């Protein structure tokens, strides 16, 4: 039984790390590949400093990894499947009842599963 305790604690740590809306959006933004902080900030309409603050714990927990090119840092998911896992978790969100309409969750699912405009070129 000790292994179940260890694994449960590790999973709880991961869920705590993901328990921030900006981090979830950041992971979903990186689902299609590597991006620099400025691109992520622009896509999420957040300051670059805030993006960097969220990337630090994600990097420390090996959810993302970075690559430097000159002064730029590029980030990518170490396990892209985590983005699909987050989309699947939308089924457990009771947004439809709280917002009074289901369109919001459907819009997010569509956004988070859409291909990048760059990849269709």
From TrEMBL:
Xref: Pfam families: HTH_5
InterPro entries registered for this protein in UniProt: ArsR-like_HTH, HTH_ArsR_DNA-bd_dom, HTH_MetalResp_TranReg, WH-like_DNA-bd_sf, WH_DNA-bd_sf
Keywords, alphabetical: DNA-binding, Transcription, Transcription regulation
Domain HTH arsR-type: 3-97
SUPFAM superfamilies from the UniProt entry: Winged helix' DNA-binding domain
UniProt xrefs under PANTHER family: HTH-TYPE TRANSCRIPTIONAL REGULATOR YGAV-RELATED (PTHR33154:SF28), TRANSCRIPTIONAL REGULATOR, ARSR FAMILY (PTHR33154)
Protein name per the record: Metalloregulator ArsR/SmtB family transcription factor
Source organism: Erythrobacter fulvus
